Amino acid sequence: MNDFDNEEPVGDLPAEDGAVAEREFDPDKPYRNTPLVVIVGRPNVGKSTLFNRFLRKRRAITDPTPGVTRDPIEEPAFVNGKPVRLMDTGGFKLERVAGTWEAEMDELVVEKTVSSLKKADLIVLMLEAGPATAEDEEFIELLRPYRSRLLVAVNKTEGGRRESDAWNFLRYGFDEVLFVSAEHGDNIIELGEAITKRLDFSKVEEGEAETRIRLAIVGKPNTGKSTLSNRLTGTDSSIVSNIAGTTRDVVEGEFSYKKRKFQVLDTAGIRRKSRVHEDIEYYSVNRAIKTLKDADIVIHMIDAREGLAEQDKKIIAHASAEGLGVIFVLNKWDTMNQDKKTFKDTSKSMKIMFGQMEYAPILALSALKGTGVNELLDKALELYAQLSRKIETSALNLALADWVAAAPPPQGRTNKFKIRYLVQTQTNPVKFLAFATRPEAVTGSYVSYIRNRIRKDLGFDSIPVVVEVKGSRKKWEERAR
Prior knowledge:
This protein has helices spanning 47-55, 101-118, 134-142, 163-166, 188-197, 225-233, 279-291, 310-321, 340-354, 373-387, 393-406, 444-458, 476-480, and strands spanning 31-32, 36-40, 73-79, 82-88, 122-128, 150-155, 178-179, 205-206, 213-219, 251-257, 260-266, 297-303, 325-331, 362-364, 419-426, 430-436, 465-471. The chain is an alpha/beta fold. Helix 11 (393-406) crosses helix 12 (444-458).
């Protein structure tokens, strides 16, 4: 796999003398109404590699195993200096063993790919240099109604390899075919130029950078993550199946609620290492864990019928380490007894299991039926407000004086210390720094006491709070002067 960070940008060619100057776009600004370019083809022809090359990052998982990509993945990109929405799709696969879960999954993937064609402004059909397969021919026939929006790229022709075979694809009635190597970068600039030449950018508008509340949906396989993601976004972007481990890549979507913009990240199910047998699944799980770094709030999905497992603690340990807001969601609650005692007992056992995370809210819902979803989003707004809260230093130290008076530090000869002052150093994640006369003497229990008072008295009761200690012999008023 190549490192695309050092690739030369696919930029505009200089205009010829007398030519009308093309509209210029600033790659650092967001845009609305950008055209959608969908990359399609049979499995393992290099769709995800091309997708990653245009994005100049490894967004889609690539692997020699056919059928790695399942859900369509959509990302904003700049191609030939123009803003587009680029979509990678699952492979069009015909060969199936009837009655197997693989056949069921392949059918779902094909349905998603075909539905993506209908909304595409341009379809890039990727073929592989060499004889056409039955799947190629079937897909070419399926694409006949879309010929006016079709661009054909024959991949794996690096250094002119197998170009003589690639020309044979012209017999299917294409006006032209472009020879490229997605892995090595051959003729990618030419492909970018051909793509933008076929698109209309007249309706593209410069947008405003908007703060989005980023929700990462995590949990074990088959807990309803994709069902919830689809309900929140009002789409069917994520494939939903009873087969555990359906989602592999992180599927992103956007929606609005109560005049706030949200971004949702649907991740692969995270299971125990002993059950991760495929390299692809290993990458999927790693991608899911890394997604936590891009989130504000983690929605941890738990199948209410199965309850908690040790793996749930490991997932949340990653979120807690990042200082993220966490909401525990008991999904499929519609299949449980609806009395208050059931929920109370379940919540109690969860708080015991998660120990130091009693602050994290627990909600029950049915992603399939939509019950409890509004309550979930209301809670997400509440957590985001806490993650964004900034306390003035003067107000913080007035509160600190009360806390120290209520529970003074130890006064022994060896363990004596004073907390001089307290400042908030960061929001989202929320961090505080306490200055003490002898930081080495400050006990973990006293730091926990300060942290708990911050949560209780200053409005951080539902999120993690980090309190660090540093040495100082001056009061904050003296340092200010």
